[in-house]
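The methods section describes the discrete structure representation at length, but only in general terms. Since the whole study asks how a given chain folds, the encoding of that fold should be made plain. An entry of this sort, consisting of the sequence and the corresponding backbone structure tokens, reads as follows:

. . .
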Amino acid sequence: MKNYQLLSTFKYGSNGHSSLSEEEINAEYLHRINDYSATVTAMFPRLVNKESLEMGILNGKSVAKFNDPIFWMVTPKILMLLDTVRKQSAEISALIYTNKIPTVAINSYTYSMLTNEIFFSNEIEGVHTNPEEISTIVWDTDTKVDNKHRRLESTIRQYKASLQANQRQINNLSDFRQIYDQLLEGEISKDSLPDGNIFRDSFVYIGRQNNAVHLPPDNEKDISLALSQLITFMNNDDDVIPIVKAIVTHFMFENTHPFRDGNGRMGRYLLSSYLSNKLDVFTGLSISTSIHT
């Protein structure tokens, strides 16, 4: 089988220099989305080109289109990668649950990974925290004493709850907001809290003004529509491989960018908690660390 090419690469032709026509590119797109190996969703993310990016930032309004559904094709390379992750996770689970490693060592390593996961998730956003302080709270929260005055305590408790298979089911839009409030309590400044009933209801862009990369929906109505599509996908598509579902869900959440601040941290939390339950705890707690690396 030929190596799979993104359409952004395919459009330059076989020699990498001569651009194909719009008709040729569209024909290839239709060929892919209608292929037997393609899975097509009912989710329509915001997509944007350079021209609409510049226009949107200039006018303070998102002009990104949302006409094309998320779809993916299963290639041999993807199958091999999925199989590798599954096998490695099975090996990790065997080590954890067959008493080959002392429980105290497993708990210590889990808390070390949790500390790194929270620390690097903040670092990715430019939010500086102290790993030693995080580690102290990680161990302290084994008790039932809740000290909300300490930074990141709410975040740590949410992560630890998900590691204990207490992952919250998201059935409606308000569930997103409740998770957001509990995960990031005390971490978001008042002027950056959501300005709509549940979500953001104002224009934002991703990146710097002179180097923006994405324009998400600019009002709560469109955000709610996008996340409603996501909820349906999350809860109804049982035929989707869990790892693929996790990645696609993460993309759609970040593409929608429903809050004014904290989207990256919440998105990585959702991804981490889902993989912790579908694969193993150590794999789930390696998301932000891997991104940082």
About this structure: The chain has 13 helices and four strands.
